[in-house]
């Protein structure tokens, strides 16, 4: 019997695991995240199952190794919150779900574009109050607009295919261009500077790696087409949030749709409606009427949740059998991690 400590458990994440788990696995669900302060709750377990805001740094990995935990099973594709070297030193395998539902994330990014463009949140709030005025709600046609896509892995490719259905022109950037996508007459691979200067909308679909951290910063923002719409459904730290705020204030960035935030772990996935937001940067970001923030929910579809559960349990089962399916090393390239 393999015992699994499941962290950052929410009802929507538990349900599919309970449906697919086999009798040779026992899962203990914890609402709290896995951190240095909570790592002792893993005592007596063989594996830990974690999500994007759990933290396994060197100290946590060391303690897990001392407890005899042999596996970290990620319920996501990103792994920037895991110290892989420390896990390897302490004999801990790390597995992930490299692709659970690219359409879910891609479709959410398009939803952010449309909601921002057509001012749907403001329009809905007005109508609820009996205000049927259209002043201030003018949008633009997506048809014919140029969308810059950085990262054309599984999610970015799907987003590009949706946007070509809107008859958008796509400027794409990826160190490993997708050959099938490049044959689409509406898609052209180019360098970042050209993409920045000519895109009406910029959407990010890359993992968080040392060379992508703060990809969007003061320097890159200065190169953007004035009034551009920025969309980020990948990882918060791809964007320097303070630089984003400066870009919003000076008008270089016309609007922003964010499903992630670089310091999200204290807020996202939790109900903080009774609390004061102590994060001054997040609080400032929330004051802009041209910014739409969702709480890391791009993945949140029935299809994705089921695929996450099935793939994670498969990884654990293969670990039981002495395999290292999906195991991570630092050799994983950016293309494979999207």
Describe this structure in words.
The protein starts with a strand and ends in an 18-residue tail after the last helix. It contains twelve helices and twelve strands. 40% of the residues are buried. β3 (47-50), α2 and β4 form a beta-alpha-beta unit. The radius of gyration is 21 Å and the shape is globular. The strands form two sheets. Strands 8-7-6-9-10-11-12 form a seven-stranded parallel β-sheet, with helices on both faces. A five-stranded parallel β-sheet has the order 2-1-3-4-5. The protein folds into two domains: 2-100 and 302-320, NAD(P)-binding Rossmann-like Domain (Rossmann fold), CATH 3.40.50.720; 102-293, Rossmann fold. It is an alpha/beta fold.
Which features characterize this protein?
7-stranded parallel beta sheet, 34% helix, Rossmann fold, alpha/beta, globular, 2 domains
Short description:
The chain has 338 residues and is α/β, with parallel strands linked by helices.
Write the layout of secondary structure elements.
Elements: E1 2-6, H1 11-20, E2 25-29, E3 47-50, H2 58-67, E4 71-74, H3 84-89, E5 93-95, H4 102-117, H5 120-128, E6 146-150, H6 154-165, E7 169-173, H7 179-182, E8 187-189, H8 192-198, E9 201-204, H9 218-222, E10 228-232, H10 241-250, E11 253-258, H11 280-285, E12 291-293, H12 302-320
Parallel strand pairs: 1-2, 1-3, 3-4, 4-5, 6-7, 6-9, 7-8, 9-10, 10-11, 11-12
Helix pairs in contact: 1-12, 4-6
């Amino acid at each position: 019997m393999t015992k699994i400590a499941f962290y950052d458990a929410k009802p929507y994440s538990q349900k599919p695991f309970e449906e697919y788990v086999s009798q040779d696995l026992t899962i203990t669900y914890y609402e709290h995240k896995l951190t240095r302060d909570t790592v002792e709750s893993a005592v007596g377990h063989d594996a830990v199952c974690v999500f994007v805001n759990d933290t396994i740094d060197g100290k946590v990995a060391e303690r897990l190794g001392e407890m005899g935990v042999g596996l970290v099973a990620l319920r996501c594709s990103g792994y920037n919150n895991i110290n892989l070297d420390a896990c390897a030193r302490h004999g801990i395998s790390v597995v992930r779900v490299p692709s659970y539902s690219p359409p879910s994330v891609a479709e959410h990014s398009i939803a952010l574009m449309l909601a921002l463009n057509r001012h749907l949140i403001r329009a809905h709030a007005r109508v609820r109050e009996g205000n049927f005025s259209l002043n201030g709600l003018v949008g633009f046609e997506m048809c014919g607009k140029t969308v810059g896509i950085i990262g054309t892995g599984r999610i970015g490719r799907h987003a590009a295919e949706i946007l070509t259905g809107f008859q958008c022109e796509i400027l794409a950037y990826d160190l490993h261009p997708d050959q099938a996508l490049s044959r689409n007459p509406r898609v052209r691979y180019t360098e970042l500077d050209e993409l920045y200067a000519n895109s009406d909308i910029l959407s990010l679909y890359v993992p968080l790696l040392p060379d992508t951290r703060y990809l969007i910063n003061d320097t890159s923002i200065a190169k953007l087409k004035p009034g551009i719409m920025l969309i980020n459904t990948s990882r918060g730290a791809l964007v320097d949030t303070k630089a984003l705020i400066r870009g919003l204030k000076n008008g270089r960035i016309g609007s922003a749709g964010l499903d992630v935030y670089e310091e999200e772990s204290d807020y996202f996935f939790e109900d903080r409606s009774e609390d004061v937001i102590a994060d001054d940067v997040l609080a400032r970001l929330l004051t802009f009427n041209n910014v739409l923030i969702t709480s890391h929910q791009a993945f949140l579809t029935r299809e994705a949740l089921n695929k996450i559960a099935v793939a994670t349990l498969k990884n654990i089962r293969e670990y039981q059998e002495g395999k290292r399916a999906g195991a991570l090393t630092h050799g994983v390239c950016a293309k494979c991690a999207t």
